[in-house]
């Protein structure tokens, strides 16, 4: 730990020289500095246990406003603006104190990711759309709509087999979903076409 | 009777049993020392499952400054800095404990099936014990800062652990996007030309959730089929 120095004025740790540093150590020090700032800003002796009551409602209002702004931009077909608004909202969620309730953060974040994924699909940024919805699914937001989103992103990225798997997984959750069925039909046709085959 | 079984008397020195006991004890001590040394050497040879614990190292570094009597008070780390560092150490301990808990049934099944050897299973068990020791030490440190803080400490540390994991995942998304683009040979400049043209010919999505894409395309497809 010779490369680290504690700066009493700033109450944080810094690296002594600008030389190469282990990225994991750097990440650890960054996370610690952020936590120090949050604990000092919180004011209490020790960080309180996370409850819905001590969740930062002021920030929630800002986040909600950003979400509404993004949705309005989407409705006005300003999809790039919509993506920006949702991205700022996600950034705001990341600035919450780390000791705030994780479950509530997750709910907020899932709302933003779903909407940003839709906006990314509209701007034809399919990789970004895939990224967003893939994260949603990995966060256990396993819904037919999310599989449909990922399927559409995969389809336009040319990953037809993955798209088919997504549609089928969506249909496993909601067998009567007409949109998924229609998408799957198109995807299967495309796979046949790719293989030089037809029905 | 006395003549048939003559009893001979042997004179034994008082020191004999004492010498005997000394030899016995020194043998035991020698055995114990050698056995322990070997065990410690064997344990030292075991490769840890996890990488270096930076959080614990950083805490130890700050703690050495915090408890240094020669250092002036204004140069010492603030108490909240120490608490934050301890929380980060607790977060790392929770993360590692969760990983070990996840891996425990896998290790047990593999060991029972004879698919991993004693050394690997021992390595896992040692890591479990080390983790327990780490948590006990954290609890002790916790109590030294504030009495009964240990009761709420791990709940707070768990929230921090989950929130940090979520943030790490979110921040890695931009890098992941580049990686995915490379994997799928999908470049942003290409999307503007070739892929965009291809997509335009298919018809772009028109719904908020990409859902209406399906209906419009499905209709188009059906029309094509009819034609």
TrEMBL record, chain A:
PROSITE patterns according to UniProt: TPR (PS50005)
Keyword Disulfide bond applies: no
Domain of life of the organism encoding this protein: Eukaryota
Keywords for this protein: Repeat, TPR repeat
GO MF: Hsp90 protein binding
TPR repeat feature ranges: 144-177
Keyword Ligase found: no
Protein name: Uncharacterized protein
SUPFAM superfamilies noted in UniProt: TPR-like
TrEMBL record, chain B:
A cellular component annotation (GO) from this entry: Sec62/Sec63 complex
Transmembrane segments: 12-35
Short name of one Pfam family: Sec66
Region of interest: Disordered: 198-227
InterPro entries: Sec66
Residue ranges, compositional bias (Basic residues): 217-227
Keyword terms, alphabetized: Membrane, Transmembrane, Transmembrane helix
GO biological process: post-translational protein targeting to membrane, translocation
Keyword Hydrolase: no
Name of the protein in question: Translocation protein SEC66
